[in-house]
C-alpha cells in the first residue's frame, strides 16, 4: 500500500521541529507539511479618537442615540477586546453618569476618552 504523502521528500519533512508535539495515535515518522515562516511582523497602528467615535456610532444598532451594554460589548469585541463583556461593564461604570444603564450623547465623550486610555490598536 502506498502512503498518501509519499511524494513529500525527506528534506521537506526535515523542517518539522525536532520536539514538535504529535497527537497520540499519529505516526511520528509520517511526513508533515509545514507553513514556511515569513519572518514578517505586522505593524500595530494606534486607533484615533475619531475612529473610536465611528465604531461606537456604528454599533448603535437601533439608532436611538443610546448605547446599551450589549451594543458596547459588540463594539469592544470589534476593537479586539479579550473580554468585551467585562470591558462593556467597566465602560458603563465609568461613563454612565446618570446610572440608567445606557451611554447617551452627554456621556459619549467620557466613554471615548475611557476607551482611548485602554490603548487599542489596529493590526
TrEMBL record:
Keyword Calcium set for record: yes
PROSITE patterns for the chain: EF_HAND_1 (PS00018), EF_HAND_2 (PS50222)
Keyword tags: Calcium
SUPFAM superfamilies: EF-hand
CDD domains xrefs: EFh
Residues in EF-hand domain copies: 47-82, 83-118
Origin: domain of life: Eukaryota
Alphabetized GO MF terms: calcium ion binding
Descriptive protein name: EF-hand domain-containing protein
Species, as recorded: Gossypium anomalum
